[in-house]
From TrEMBL:
This is GH16 domain-containing protein. GO terms for molecular function: hydrolase activity, hydrolyzing O-glycosyl compounds. Transmembrane segments: none annotated. The keyword Signal applies. It comes from Tetrapyrgos nigripes. Residues 1-18 form the signal peptide. Residues 16-253 form the GH16 domain. It comes from the Eukaryota. Keywords: Signal.
Length: 253
């Protein structure tokens, strides 16, 4: 017993912190497992800033399909949508039915709690496809940090928005063959207790480091979405587009 107490004391005095899993890597193994950790659609509904209207529910997996360890988001051209334009600014015309999910758990970096968000992705890069894996503010905006964003080119965009005009972007080449590659972001509070350092990785190599001003204490949503057109250009594909995610793991220490 004495030995156990000494080991525990040394463990704590060394500053080692336990890791807590918030979203396990098997959350896409089945619909029931998915629904433990994820919600259908955007936090504010079906529309955002592109031409895709998100469709999905516990009874409709035609565009949001978690199965066998992989989340597949599917965009298909649509005609005569009601309403015909997005309900979100800048109200683009709706040209696709597509899919998006967001995590039930919110992510808040504090001075004592850092976060690691990671996964593997097969992302389309054709003109008019706009998939993403990103964090955005629960209240107001910013903060926003884009861990994965593909804007119709063979690049992944790492972005941190401090304001709409103060943005840091780092582009890293991404293959167009729809192979899976891993992405990871490690979010840690700076010593000033206000700002967050974000280290972005691709295939386990550090690719960019950015800083979010005032991000400490700000709750954020984690979103996986297949938006269309908008910033990725138009016209988009005339056929079906798929975006896949697997092994998404969210932890904090």
């Amino acid at each position: 017993m004495l030995l156990s107490l000494v080991v525990a004391t040394d463990f704590l005095s060394a500053g080692v912190h336990a890791q807590t899993t918030v979203i396990p890597s098997d959350s896409f193994s089945s619909v029931s497992r998915f629904e433990q950790f994820w919600n259908y659609l955007y936090p504010l509904g079906s529309d955002h800033n592109g031409s895709g209207r998100m469709v999905g529910s516990s009874s409709d997996h035609s565009h949001i399909n978690p199965a066998g360890g992989t989340l597949t988001l599917i965009a298909t051209p649509t005609s005569n949508p009601v309403p015909p334009t997005s309900t979100a600014n800048p109200n683009p015309a709706i040209h696709y039915a597509s899919g998006v999910v967001h995590a039930k758990s919110q992510i808040t970096v504090t001075s004592t709690q850092s976060w690691t968000i990671q996964g593997e992705f097969s992302a389309p890069t054709a003109k008019g496809t706009w998939p993403a894996f990103w964090l955005t503010a629960v209240q107001g905006w910013p903060p926003e940090a884009d861990i994965g964003e593909w804007k119709g080119t063979n690049n992944n965009w790492y972005n941190t928005f401090n304001t709409s005009a103060v943005v840091r972007s780092d582009l890293v080449a991404w293959p167009a063959d729809l192979s899976f590659h891993s992405l990871k972001a490690v979010l840690t509070a700076e010593s000033n207790g206000k700002d967050v350092r974000i280290d972005f990785y691709m295939d386990n190599a550090l690719r960019a480091t950015q800083f979010g001003a005032g991000f400490v204490g700000k709750a954020m949503w984690l979103i996986v979405n297949l938006q269309m057109e908008g910033s990725s250009g138009s016209p988009g594909p005339s056929g079906t587009t798929t975006y896949k995610a697997r092994n998404v793991l969210v932890t904090h220490t």
